[in-house]
Amino acid sequence: MTEQRFLISEAARMVAVEAHVLRYWEEELEIPVGRTELGHRYYTRENIEMFQNVKELKEKGLQLRAIRQLLKEKEHVWGAAQNGKDTSFEKGKEGEEIQSPALIEQNTKKLRQFEELVSEIVDKVIKENNEQLQGRIEDAFSREMEYLLHMQEKREEERFRKLDEAIRAHQKSGRTAAAAKEHSWLRRWFAKQ
What we know:
Layout: H1 8-15, H2 19-28, E1 34-35, E2 41-42, H3 45-59, H4 64-82, E3 89-91, E4 97-99, H5 101-192
Antiparallel strand pairs: 1-2, 3-4
Helix pairs in contact: 4-5
């Protein structure tokens, strides 16, 4: 039975990303993808499932560097079974090969370990992202408060400058009026003399 193959456009639609994203992930994550005789990419169900997992991890905040490490861990965990090591098969009722319960239990244990590892990495990444985000928010808040305080100081300085000008103008007009009054009083006094 031949495996089903998908063109890049079909695979991109199934993963719900653009085709260039699949090419980028393929290159960055070193994911082996088949080629036709003409050199065109084709994707298997396994490739598509892997890309869907990558997309989920990206949506959880992991960077490609961390995802590449996870894929290498998964390859290491499952590599032995895929390369024919530690595989023990039993014959089923109709002669088909089935994995032994011991191997199933071992693989289940490895899968749980892998899931725990992924969970720890996701938690760590989320915590780091939250800390970075909190720092950025605090910096932005601090800058905004400094700006508001600076603007308030400038408004107060302007208000006091205008108040000072008004007081000086009032004092000047008062002195002018007093001088005029004194001048007229002196005139009258000299006129009487």
